[in-house]
Amino acid sequence: MTWVKRGKEVQALPVYDVSSGHFTIGLYHVGSFGGKGARKRYYVNGDICHFDYCHEDEMSLIELRVMGKELGLHASSEYFVRVGQNYSQIHSDVDAMNLYKHVDGNRIVHVYATEDKQASGDKPASVVLRRSPRIHQDPNQL
Questions:
Q1: pLDDT higher at 101 or 126
Q2: Residue 98: phi, psi to the nearest 5?
Q3: Which of 67-76, 93-102, 114-123 has maximum average pLDDT?
Q4: Of the four listed, 36, 79, 121, 141, which is most buried by Cβ atoms within 10 Å?
Q5: For residue 4, how far is the Cα from the chain centroid?
Q6: pTM of the model
Q7: What CA–CA distances, in Å, run from 60 to 80, 125, 132?
Q8: Do residues 127 and 33 make contact, with C-beta atoms less than 8 angstroms apart?
Q9: Which one, of 108, 125, 112, 138, lies nearest residue 30 by Cα?
């Protein structure tokens, strides 16, 4: 484990050398997906915590669950990565290892955790992000 949970008092983003393989995970938690159907989905009412110095070669689903555990999430939590305007579920270690492919201009990957289940028990593998007054803003726009 090389990542570090950022304290609430720290506001500055780390500066990474692009060739280092490091990035930050912005982990949204205690929120839920809203909307109806696979094409009308958005994440609302959550908090965000940053985990700095994540490394592309050391990420796994277990690492995400350890991060989630530090935030009080259960091992059964599901994780999604924001890819453009969509969410894609992180199903495996390979998915977690590929998180670095989704870094933004500040080397942040936006990951969303949820513990609630849809009535059907299944979530689509990819959902569309829609804006809502209570939706989390992109940290790059703050």
A1: 101
A2: -90, 5
A3: 93-102
A4: 79
A5: 15
A6: 0.76
A7: 13, 18, 31
A8: yes
A9: 112
Alpha helices in the chain (DSSP H): 61-70, 93-97
Per-residue three-class SS string for the chain: CCCEECCCCCCCCCCCCHHHCEEEEEEEECCEEECCCCCCEEEECCEEEEEEEEECCCCCHHHHHHHHHHCCCCCCCEEEEEECCEEEECCCHHHHHHHHHHCCCCCEEEEEEECCCCCCCCCCCEEEECCCCCECCCHHHC
The DSSP symbol for 93 reads H
Average pLDDT (52-72) is: 94
